[in-house]
Amino acid sequence: MKTLVTTNIYTDVTAPTDKNGALGVMAGLLAKDHHLNEKNLLAGFEQREAESSTGFGNGVAIPHAKIDGLTDPFVGVVTFTQPVTWQSLDAAPVTIAIALVMPADDPDQLHLKVLSKLARKLMDDDFIAALHKNQHDAQALADVLNEVL
User: DSSP label at 104?
Assistant: First the structure.
């Protein structure tokens, strides 16, 4: 996976405080930067959420989508000004969403590898604390996440 760059990180984003509204805002931001169809990206996020919530816990969600025609996978991060109700595993609202956007054609199962690494790290209290401490600083968030990605 390529290094996470700050252009994929949006801090202090004002969004609706419901999951679907927040996903819509995320899809708009990330689609624009990567020249994707916003509706397709949102549909990908929503399809995955319909299977089970991507709210991991401790205020963090990992929404992800597979997109037809995408050649370069990317990670995007959005931090919210207001907590978002996400149906997380611990029922806590989300303030940090780490989005994985992968090609639909993923023979190497890259999305599973990245998800696995990230999920393991999200069980580390120090890592969670670092995410929350730096949620208003795009470069600091990139530095924290690049250690995992």
Answer: S
Length of the chain in residues, anyone? 149
- CA 79 centroid distance within chain: 9
Record the tokens describing residue 37, joined without a space. 């169809």
Please say whether the dihedral angle defined by the alpha carbons of residues 35, 39, 42 and 48, taken in this order, is positive or negative: negative
Mean pLDDT for 81-105 is: 95
Active site residue 64: yes
Task: Choose the catalytic residue: 64, 111, 132, 136.
Answer: 64
Read off the amino acid at residue 74: F
pLDDT band at 49 (very low <50, low <70, confident <90, very high): very high
Best CA proximity match to 146, nearest among 115, 118, 112, 113: 118
Token pair for 18? 């419901």
Which structural domains are found in the chain, ordered by start?
6-142 (3.40.930.10)
Mapping DSSP to helix (H, G, I), strand (E, B) and coil, where does residue 92 land? coil
Please tell me which residue, 82 or 147, carries the higher pLDDT value: 82
Determine the Cα–Cα distance for residues 38 and 111; give it in Å rounded to an integer. Answer: 20
Q: Answer yes or no: pTM beyond 0.90.
A: yes
DSSP code for 94: E
